[in-house]
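Below is a filled-in request sheet from our internal design queue. Each sheet records the structural input a requester submitted and the sequence that came back. We keep these sheets so that new team members can see what a complete request looks like end to end.

REQUESTER: design group, bay 2
PRIORITY: normal
MODE: inverse folding
CHAIN LENGTH: 195
BACKBONE (tokenized):
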């Protein structure tokens, strides 16, 4: 908990700090890219079921886990920030570097991985991105899905740069094409399958 949130919780009670966080989460979830995630990608992945890894946990991702599990999926979460565990899936969260996902999850295989907003926010260089993609490929079953979300103002296009080509091929997901971009935000989704 940050200093301001801790102070608000102390002075105004825990509910005030939660309300402040919830307002931020509500604002983020109202962005067009987050709406596509909630309205298209999450239902499509939920329908496919299986074991799903969500990379990068924040308060605004909490609702997505339950939605993914509504049809019998099993969600696991990970984040490099140990403090983010509070937003992870209880009992199925591991703290670690996604560039080492193959070691972090050496005992598991996933049917789908959602890696959204991680590249350009810690996994910045093409070398780090290539290592992260190789590590994710190692824990994703052949034919499994990778939903990769990234921002055009943070990194170069990882697909155009060939960083995904060794392990992944483009494949549409649900009602969306292989790539979805937005006019009002810099976010891009690439839907891929493990080859």
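RETURNED SEQUENCE:
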């Amino acid at each position: 908990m940050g200093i301001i949130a801790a102070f608000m919780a102390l002075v105004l009670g825990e509910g005030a700090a939660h309300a402040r966080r919830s307002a931020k989460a509500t604002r983020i979830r109202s962005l067009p890219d987050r709406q596509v995630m909630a309205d298209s990608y999450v239902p499509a992945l939920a329908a496919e079921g299986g074991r799903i890894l969500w990379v990068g946990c924040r308060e605004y991702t909490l609702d997505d886990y339950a939605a993914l599990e509504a049809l019998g999926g099993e969600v696991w979460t990970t984040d490099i920030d140990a403090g983010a565990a509070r937003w992870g899936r209880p009992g199925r969260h591991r703290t670690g570097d996604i560039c080492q996902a193959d070691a972090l999850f050496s005992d598991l295989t996933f049917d789908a991985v959602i890696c959204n907003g991680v590249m350009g926010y810690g996994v910045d260089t093409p070398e780090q991105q290539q290592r992260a993609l190789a590590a994710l490929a190692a824990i994703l079953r052949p034919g499994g899905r990778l939903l990769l979300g990234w921002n055009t103002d943070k990194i170069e296009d990882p697909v155009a740069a060939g960083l995904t080509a060794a392990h992944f091929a483009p494949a549409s997901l649900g009602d969306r094409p292989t790539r979805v971009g937005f006019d009002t935000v810099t976010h891009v989704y690439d839907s891929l399958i493990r080859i």
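SHEET NOTES:
- The chain has two domains: 1-30, 31-194.
- The mean pLDDT is 91.
FILED BY: M.R.
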